[in-house]
Amino acid sequence: MKTAKLGILFLIPLLVIGTSALANEKPDVDHGPTVVLDIAEVAGRAEGDDCSNPIVIPGLPYQDLGQTTCGRGNNYADTCLGSYDGGEDILYQLTLTSTTTVEITMDPLGTTWTGIAIDDECPPGLSCIAFQTGSSSAPRFLSVTLAPGTYYIMVDTWPSPTCIPAFNLSIVEGVPFPNPTCETAIDLCAQGLTTFPTQTCGGGSNYSPTNGCTGYSQAAGEDAVYKIYLTTGQVFAATLTDESYDAAIYLLTDCSNMNSCVAGGDDPETFSYVATADGWYYLVVDGYATGGCGTGIMTIDMPPTPAETPTWGRVKGMFR
């Protein structure tokens, strides 16, 4: 599922190395060569085959069940989906008359290496409004708030296999994203959260650490933010699993200073941190690539455990 990542960090996982070595760049092309297929030369192309005749979505909610990209040709291969647009593709058109939060779910029904994108141009450009890709067969999910206008949705695949034999598309009107910034961060303790789903599509790209704390040089995707108050010596651990995109997680002490990232993880998305000062800490769920977003399952320690074994004197002091 993950974008191929190279670097010393994963060749020698137990070696502690400096920040500059951790801040690796990721390659632009994932998972081997991209196969570019020829556009199918057939008379009378079917609805959805290309931008000249997209499938028109009449309104929300909308479902297109048991659809396929097979036989439609690889008409578009220079989009924000990157190497995930090398297979056969299908296009939809959605027109909105008012500002709407749109939630789009594409279930590839067992097919791996799929992607979905939405943009206000057809085909989607290199910098589209939102996209999600992944190697697993998990559903791809987008949640975006859109102004009135006409938009285009493309479903595609990294060309192994070269097409999606069957998928379900569902589009509903949703609610604006709840916690994309530190100001709107969800309090983990107040909510009693220990294992919970995360979703970053629609949150916007608000944060990206600059000190390599995730192991790579950036985390430029869309964000979801959670907060927790820690006291000196407490241990806070977080792990993101089942993520449907190239995710990253990290911990900030000052949301206005990206150098304040004190811990993070990207492949794997996990870290453990011993608090060095009392205060609020901000757990950010992010994506490596610009615009990258998706879903995952976060597991954290709750409550945080003490870093030191309590002495009898310290225990007695707790009851004074």
Automatic annotation (TrEMBL):
Matching Gene3D superfamilies, A to Z? 2.60.120.380
The alphabetized UniProt keywords are:
Signal
Which InterPro entries does the record associate with it? Peptidase_C_arc/bac
Organism equals Eiseniibacteriota bacterium
Report the residue ranges that make up the Peptidase C-terminal archaeal/bacterial domain in this protein.
224-287
Q: Has the keyword Manganese been applied to this entry?
A: no
State whether keyword Acetylation applies: no
Tell me the domain of life: Bacteria
From the UniProt annotation, give the residues forming the signal peptide: 1-23
Name of protein: PPC domain-containing protein
One Pfam annotation, family name? PPC
